[in-house]
Design brief:
single chain; Quinone Oxidoreductase, Chain A, domain 1; seven-stranded mixed β-sheet; 16 strands; globular
């Protein structure tokens, strides 16, 4: 089958290659991939930013989420049959969606929303699961709470704004001038144009902040929380709890804790908390999200679709910051 490989960490170029079709384990669903989305995570994996915790052996196929058609199921698989249209964010140890086929664990797969095209469905799994795990699982957002979603026009942000609004929150977001109207159409109550205003000067007493940017933006976000509030960061720094999720021992826990020590100390002084989120695959949560998509509560935002042969160009498009809003998708057929 055709696939796009990372030959060495740090290389900007992907290599198109013919590789064997994946073997199907007892709990696996073999998917013929119709579309896969490009995520900033793909760039970080390619560049080796996560090789200390996600040590993929080069060469490997890149790509983290997909939409496609089931062509074979393992002997222990229940609930899926050949011909089913599905979507998934594959588990972090089974990546490789920039290919014609991928064997995915049945627990990570869900039936594709019928209202969406393959390209639209492929744009959702990683970012929608990130939003769900941040706002529903971690923050447990309740009606009437105030939630700030940074970078609302981005892949995660565009879904998180809609989900937070569905949960009954008063939703604020940050974006550039060109995307103010888009964010209002997605349900944001307050849109801060960062080119015109500094969010930390106009927002206050928030319960939850979802921050995909990190750095100085994260530090400023601590200031706008009310006591007891929480910042959930998806760009880092990682914390000891994340090391525990990876099954790491005391040394890794200590290293992760050191990376976030300064941020956590600043949070404590303000009587708020900081948590790092590295989303995980979940077919069950995708089914929850499918129901919201089918009701029209959540809609994908797709910026551009590239043909499979131009997968390298799609990554370059994302890396160079040319995405206007939402996600970039690669289609195989």
């Amino acid at each position: 089958m055709r696939a796009f490989m990372v030959e060495r960490y740090g290389s900007k170029a992907l290599r198109a290659a013919e590789v064997p079709e994946p073997q199907v384990g007892p709990d696996d669903v073999l998917v013929r991939i119709h579309a896969a989305s490009v995520n900033p995570l793909d760039l970080k994996i390619r560049d080796g930013d996560f090789k200390a915790i996600l040590p993929y052996r080069v060469p490997f196929v890149l790509g983290n989420d997909l939409a496609g058609t089931v062509v074979e199921v393992g002997v222990a698989v229940k609930g899926f049959s050949p011909g089913d249209e599905v979507y998934a964010r594959c588990d972090s140890d089974r990546i490789g969606t920039f290919a014609e086929y991928l064997a995915v664990r049945q627990d990570d797969v869900a039936l594709k929303p019928t209202a969406l095209t393959m390209a639209e469905a492929a744009s959702l799994p990683l970012v929608a699961l990130t939003a769900w795990q941040a706002l529903v699982e971690r923050a447990q957002v309740r009606p009437g709470q105030k939630v700030l979603v940074h970078a609302g026009s981005g892949g995660v942000g565009s879904i998180a704004v809609q989900l937070a609004k569905h949960l009954g929150a008063d939703v604020a977001t940050t974006t550039s001038t060109a995307h103010v109207d888009l964010l209002r159409s997605l349900g944001a109550d307050t849109v801060v144009d960062y080119k015109q205003q500094a969010f930390e000067t106009v927002l206050h007493d928030y319960d939850v902040v979802l921050d995909p940017l990190g750095g100085e933006n994260l530090e400023k976000s601590l200031r706008i929380l009310k006591p007891g509030g929480k910042v959930i960061g998806i760009a880092g720094p990682p914390d000891a709890a994340f090391a525990g999720e990876l099954g790491g021992g005391p040394i890794l826990r200590a290293a992760m804790a050191a990376l976030s020590f300064r941020t956590r100390c600043r949070a404590r002084r303000r009587h708020v908390t900081y948590e790092f989120l590295f989303m995980r695959a979940s077919g069950d949560q995708l089914r929850e999200l499918t129901a919201l998509v089918e009701k029209g509560t959540i809609r994908p935002v797709v910026d551009r679709v590239f043909p499979f042969e131009s997968t390298g160009d799609a990554l370059e498009y994302v890396e160079n910051g040319r995405v206007r809003a939402g996600k970039v998708v690669v289609t195989m057929t």
